[in-house]
Structures are given as C-alpha cells and as structure tokens.
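Q: My labmate handed me this sequence with no annotations at all. I'd like to see what the chain might look like in three dimensions before we decide whether it's worth expressing. Could you predict it?
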Amino acid sequence: MENKIRKKDIAIVGVSGKYPKSDTINAFWENLKNGEELVHFYTDDELRAVGVSEKDLANPSLIKAQASLDDPNSFDYSFFGYTKQEAISMDPQIRLMHEQVWLGLEDAGYNPRTYKDKIGLYLSASDNMNWRAYTMIANNDNVNSFFLNQISNKNFISTLISYNLNLRGPSYYVDTACSSSLVAVHQACRSLLMRECSIAIAGGIRIYSKPYRGHSYQEGMTNSKDGHCKAFDEDSSGIVSGEGAGVVVLKRLEDAIADNDQIYAVIRSSVVNNDGNRKVGYTAPSINGQYECIKQAHQIAEVTSESITYIEAHGTGTKLGDPIEVEALNKSFGYNANHHCALGSVKTNIGHLDAAAGITGFLKATLSLKNKMIPPSLHFKNPNPEINFKSGPFKVQTELAAWNSVNNQPLRAGVSSFGIGGNNAHVILEEAPEKAETIADNSYQLLRFSAQSLGSLNAYQEKLISALENKESDSFRDMAYTLQTGRSQFKYNRFLVSNSKENALEILKDPLSTALYSAKLDQKRKIVFMCTGSGAQYLNMGKDLYENEPYFKQLMDEGFSIINELTGVDVKKVLYKEATATGGFDVNKNEFTQPIVFVFEYALAKQLMRWGIQPDKLIGHSTGEFVAACLSGVFSFETGLRLVAKRALLMNKSSEGSMLSVSLSEEKVKKYLNSNIALAVVNSPESCVLSGTVDAIETLIEIFEAEEILCSKLKISLGGHSFLMDPVLEEFREELKKVEFSTLKIPFVSNLTGALITPEEAMSSQYWIDHLRSTVRFSDGLSTLLKEPNTVFIEVGPGNTLTTLFQQQKHDPTSNNTAINLIRHPKQEINDQEHLLKKIGELWTNGIDIDWEAYYGAQKPYKVSMPGYAFNKTKLPVKVNPFEFLNFSGAETSAAAIPFALEHFDDTEAFQEDPEENAISFINYVAPTNETEKKLVEMWQTFFSKEEIGILHDFFALGGNSLKGVTMLKLIQKVFDIDIKIKDFYQKSTIKELASEIDMRLKFVTKLEEESSYKSVMTI
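A: Here is what I predict for the chain of 1020 residues:
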C-alpha cells in the first residue's frame, strides 16, 4: 500500500492529553480500547461536602455524574518560572495547558529551547467567569494587578504559553463554542500551509472551577437523564459534562518525512463553515451546513467517501443532534448503503468537554489510525428510530475491532465537531505513510535524561524503564536519539551508555550500578582542546572509532596516505596491526610515533568540531602543539604532517639519548642539571622530564633511587628538547622555509613561554626551531589557561596523560574548571565508541552538547514517542466559590481582607527529596542583620517560594522581572509606608542595598516630621 503524498498534507507528529482516569494520552487510549466509561458517579456524601442540600439530594431530577480530572490542582509552577502566588491566581486551564503543550512537543521530539524555526500555538479553553470573579474578589497583593488580569483570563492562554516557551509563530485563542479545538486544528493547518510556522500546536481544555453539585435533568434540554451519553441509541437523552485537555503537534508532511519524525496520522484536509440561518434556531444544528462542510473536506482531501471507513462523530446523544448529524453524513456519502463505515463518539466514554471536545475526538481517531484499531462506542443497544441508518453506510461500532485496509487503500477517517452558533468543522485523516524498517544496530548509544529536581529525575527514570520494557517496536537507537535531540537539559542529569535495551534496563534497575552516571549541571563557558604529545600512543588506539566514524576514518586515511608517501611505510598496518603487516615496524618507534599521533589528534579534534564542539583556546604538549597550530590555521593539515614527519626523522638521526620523568619541581630539579642533562619538560608543579646522554641519565637514576626520589625512564631512545637536537636544527630550518604560514584563528598557548602565542611567534620559523630544542613549559601553559574560570579542558589524544597533568596543577577552588579525556587508556578494556560516548555524556553534564544531526549524518535515526517530563506534583486551588466571601449583611467587610487561599491549599511537592531544591546557587548566604533586612527577607521568601534567601540575593537573579518588580515595590511601599521609585529598586535590587535605601528614607521622613513638629510649637 502506498500513500499518495501531497504538498498540502499535514502530519501529526506529537500528541498529549490528560483525561479522567487517564493521566497520559497512552492511558486514555487504553481506556478507550477497553471500552471504559470515565464518568464519575458522585455519592451523596461527596455532594454534601460541597454544600448540596438534603432537599436537592432527594430531587430525582438531580443527576450526580461528571467526568472529572483526578488531579486538576497540580501544576509544576517552578518549572515554568512562576511564583507560587502567580500559580495560585492562574486559571487552572492555563496551568495545565502549559504542561500539556510541553509534553506534546516532547512527544514530537522537539525542544522549544533549541528549535530554530517558528512554532505556532492555537488553543481553546472553556468559559472561566467563576475563576475570574474569584481572583478579583480575593485580590492577591503578591501578583501585579495587570499581570493578574492576564493569567486569570482564558483569552490569554496561547500568548502566555508562547511567551513562556518562546514560541515565535502565530499565537491564537480560538472560540467557536463546542467546535473550538477542532477549529484550532484547522487554523494550525492553514498557518503551516501558509508557512507562517514550521510546527503548529493545536489543542483545547476544559476544567471546571466550580465544585460539582450535580446537574438537573430537564426534558428537551442537552443534559442526560441518567449520567450516560448514549449517542445514537434509542434511550439517549443528551450529554454528561466532562473535563480534559488534549494537544496535537503538526508539521507539513513532506518536512516530517524529511526530518524522520514519528507520524501518528496525516491530515488530508480540514474545513470550517457556518450554518447561517438555515435551521430552526440559533442553537440548532443544520443538515445542509454539516453536509457542505463534510463534502468540501472530501473534495479538498481528493478522496472518495467510499475510502473512508470510520467517522468520529460529534455524537452528543441528543434527540435532535444525532439524527441531523447522521443525515448530513448520509448525504455526504451519497446515501451509499452498500459501503460500510464505522461510527463512534468519544463522548460516550468521557462526556462533552465543550472547548476540548473536538480535539478529544480528533485524538481518538488519530490513535485509532496509528494502532489500526477502532474502539467501541459505548451504551449503544438499539438505534434511535429518528436516525436514518438504513439509507447510508453507517453502523455504530460497539466492539473493539481491527481496522483493516480495503482494496489496498490507506485507512481513512473523518472527524466532526459542531459548535453552538453553527460553526462546523470536519477533518479527513489518513494513516501515516509506511516507515522504512530500522536496521538492526548493536552500536553503543548515549541514553540520557534530565530534570529540574532530583525527585523528578528519579520519577522519570521509572517512566524510562517502563518505556524500554514496553516499546518493543522502537529501536534502542531511535529511543536514544529522541532523548538526545528532543529534550531540554535541566539542573539534574543522568546518563548511561549501552548497546541494547536489555543492558540499559539492567543498568537502570540496579540501584548499585556504576554504569549509571548522575551529575548536577555544571555550566561551562569556555572550551580548551589539549593536544597530547608523542608517547601516549598505543597499538589499535581508536580502532573502533576508525571503523565506525566515516569522517574520522576519512581524515585518518588522508594522513596515512601522506605518511606513506613520505616514508614508504603503510602506518595504518603499523597502528591497526594486520595479519599481513611486515615485521620490524613498531608504533612506538619515534619516526612513526609523531606523525601517527599528529594524524590521530587532528582527526579526533576535527571530528569534535564537526560535531559542534568548537575550542576557544588550544594547548599542545610538544608534538601536540603542531596539532594546535594546524587547528588554529597557522598551516595546513598536509604541511603540519610533513613538518612533524620530518621532525621525527631528524630527531631519530640525532645522537642517542634518554629521557627521565621525575617527581620534582622545576626549582628542585635545577641542581641536577649539567652539560649532559637538560630540563626538557615542566609538566606540573611537582613533575618534570629530564633529557640527556644515556650514561648521564643512568647515573641520575642511581642518584634519585639513593635519594628516594620517584623517577621513571621513558620508552624512547633520544633526548628530545635538549642540546642533543642541535645537530639537526639547521636541516629543520630548511624544511620550515617551505612552509606558507597563515595568521592564527584560534588562540593557543606556547610551549616556549607558557603564555598565549603571538601571531609573530606562530608564523616564525625560528619559533618552531626553538620549539624542537627548548624546554616544554606545559605547566606554565596550563596555569595561563586556568586563570579563565568555568572552562572544560578536553584531552584530544590517546589516553589520559594531559588530564592527569591537569589534575596535578594548583587550582583555585572557585575556578570551576574540569578536564575530560576522550580516548581510553590502553589498559582500559572498553570499546572506544562506548568510552567516547561516556565522555560526551560528561561534557553534557558540563553544559556542552554535540550536534547530534552531524553525529548521525546520513544514518539519522527516527524520532519515536518517549515518556514526557515527570512534573512535580503540587496542590493549588481549582474548585472555588468566590461568592461565599461576599458580605451581603451591610457591614463594611472588605474582600481584600480575604486570605488568598494560602492556608487552604498545600503546595508541598511530592518529590521533595532534594535538600538543595530551594537553595539559591552561587550566592553565599548572609543572614539579615537588622529589622528592615529581616522583613525584606520574609517578603522575598513568600514571594519567590524559596527558603534560603539572604541579604546578598538579587531580586532579578531570583527570577524577578519588570511586572514582578512593580508588584514587590507596591508591597514594600505598603509595609514600610515610604515612597521608593522603580528606578531606585532596579539600581538597588539586593536586600542589603534595598534595606539601606529604605532605612535612609525612613530617617529622612522622621527628621522632616520632627522639624514640622518643632515649627508648629514655635508658631504657637
């Protein structure tokens, strides 16, 4: 079966939802599939608790059923940067939709913080006049009144979320009554086709802010007589109300395919129209209005009605609505009784969700297409005799059924949603194009996840375990890729490296596993590449990378070819020893060591740069400085390699010598230097390398052993960086004359001076001659670079030699610098790719991430649905009665005196396992020293919902902004009864500065009052 892909087709790439008894969209699908009714039937005790009288409870027309959300109170406000006070005042629908939009984007595999193109947002929400009244009467002084107007008003739902998540496409609030959220889908599709955005999010929500007190059944009205919605049944009597939220994430189909997105289903067309006055009344439905909408959708979709085999109907179960809807469908399908098309309504499961009704039906149809199953429509036994089922193809789906293709056509569905006032919406959906099979792959993957709190991190780990256990059809590679590219990074991070789901599960389930790495985000600002010198090489170094990373292999092969041209030796066979390799060649021979190390480090560094990790500075160790110069652009790769190869041959021609590493400082080692012993390298404050004649070095070893000084002879038969190089310097000068030097582009440190090299030095032949002859001052070079705080030093070479030298330096404890080696030590028995990915994971915890698109290249994996963020659970007000606060007795009681529900609602987060969660990072805590400072600290603690706030903390660093600043200023003016200007608050925004300003003004006011009093006395 082959889908015909058109430019105007829209892909559904992400979904999210929260419904009664269904905390996630997957739980909702399971309930639909299992034919569950999600309506709650309230007991009399539950209704008494919210004030329903005994008289009303005894009334037989009181229906006690509603599909209610299990925890509408919960909102992880700190995740989205709101204060507790702001969250308390925010419309519960806006709260929950923040989380659902975030989860929808995560399900699509897109991170709004890093996505470069525009994302549009099209949301609907139900009327919230009760909540608006509550926030106006309760009068929360801790929230700016202007901002309070926005966060308590459903009309701002889209723009508030767009602002919070930095969504830069169109942002609309859509209101067409019951059809609102399906119209939002239509608007989102139009914006995509007009290229106003690259991703469009559509959704709807309804949460009641009034406590449920039952509803009264009245014959002929829309509410059901028994609490069930029995769409199309002879016993139907209307709807039952429900709560819920749903979101879909959309892209142009051609883009989604090109980007390897997961695709739930395809929107072939969407149409919206209005009935006009072709009906008996404003609130009544119209056969012709609905027919024209559906027929036009078929035409735009370029499909026949016979190819559609399921309709998700508006299906309210009303005596008037159902017959009209089916008649309009019959007409749209040409009254074709020979065709078979299943009919269903999600309202039989969950009731009518008002502004969220359309998106809920849309989600049901989408998930049905994805899973190729049609869930049952509930409560249907005998057809409503007013419905003309005989003249059309429709049959109510009463059982879960496999949805099979007919005549090898793609599965298609129609979704209807009709609003009071006549706005009709209809969408044609088609099953997603077949995805190419994922090739079995046992390569290593970095599986990582992150959260704002330790509790959320642990909760997400449990969700991840469940996903790995249950998502059999998704490849481990696809799952890892989705988390790498489609998730934001937060304060707490965890990762593992594995080559299978099974192994990853073992690691995640084992509380004592050493293969699961956890770390707080330690944001680094600068990157230094450290290029290792010769001596760290080993047989088969990086072999797994060579075999698995095409770009790395390409650069290595280029280098091998140049070396072969220069020496006549295939050094690839030397490094990656093959059975046919000729004997006599050793990777540790100097003439091979230097060029091989140069090629290896250059290829590794360029690979990192290709992956998006760009160094701010470079440092090399001896031969490694040639790599640094090459990366900086001083000379080309080929020129650098020819220089290093020549250098190695010349050093090999020099008189036989020896080199000795010794655990002494430069100052202490000086007394051992003489005409036969030179200081070759200063590696660290307590480690040097000496170079000299064989006999002199042997004698020195005996001296050190007698004095119990640790020393180690290097496996090298020459005396580098010493007088033994003098005979070859002129020949090296001749080689340097052939070089075309260029201006350096990336600063690097000089081995000769320990300071940043000057452009003149870098382009001087004499510098590189001196570099061969003189002491390598690597320790001084590191000291220069360590002055820059918040830097990560990446060892670009084999093993961990330079990382070890980094650790031996004297570090300022406040500098926050770290070093990471990318290639395993020869004694480590670990796959090179596995080791590298672990180090990439370490870089990630330091705030440095690679470009994963570049990492995967042409073999880019698919995005798949992975668990969404584990939001902290809180309990905020939702069901409120503002009028209980009003005083109708005539007494002067101000509504402003009402406490804003603080003592009634517990916001203790379910995941309070992190003792530092409310601490403020990077600022030393200083306690208040006077009464003014103490009052300000208490005000800020309440305002920001943070405990450890001291007098050095800055209002804006804590998360304040201009609106919050105005609110705080009013509180300060009210508490201290003084006039402070907003500009003074901006300039003196720490508690210490602000308290000093307040005290000064209070003294001034007191003095004025005293002077005024004195003058009054004198006048008398």
